[in-house]
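[Backbone geometry]
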Amino acid sequence: MGFLRDIVETWIRPAQVVRRKLAAGLREEKLLAYVIFAALIALIARIPVLVSEQQAAADPKPLDALVAGSIVAYLLFGPLFLYLLAALSHMVARLARGKGSWQGARLALFWSLLALQPLVALSAFLVGLAPWAWVARVAPWALAGGFVWVWLSALAAVERPSDEQ
């Protein structure tokens, strides 16, 4: 139950949750599990969208090819890209006098993505059910804004020196 409580609390107090996770000590396999789990949930939420796009296309591609491509993108290239993004964010934080670690930057990004996934699934569900076009346009922007806020809050928390926290 602590895992789900941490996800909910991340949307209220992201800095405290990430500091607590960092203080508890993390190993790389746990961070990898966070990013793979987030990618898997995002992939599952994407499948209904792929089905509707495939049905609406004038020249539909086979659904199995679309799903296979999404699996490769989400579960192979996605985590690689996110590792690079975490490294880049840590380098930028270092330029801004951040005192965190590479692992802390990965924790901030990967945990923020994982905390976002219940809302990603809900958004995909709503977009699939709602006949209103504005929902499909607003939901991704709202999710992106929420993610940026959580991620930057978490990154700031792990990059600050411990005496400033």
User: Anything to note?
Assistant: The helical segments are 2-10, 14-24, 28-56, 63-95, 102-129, 133-159. The two ends are 27 Å apart (CA to CA). The longest helix spans residues 63-95.
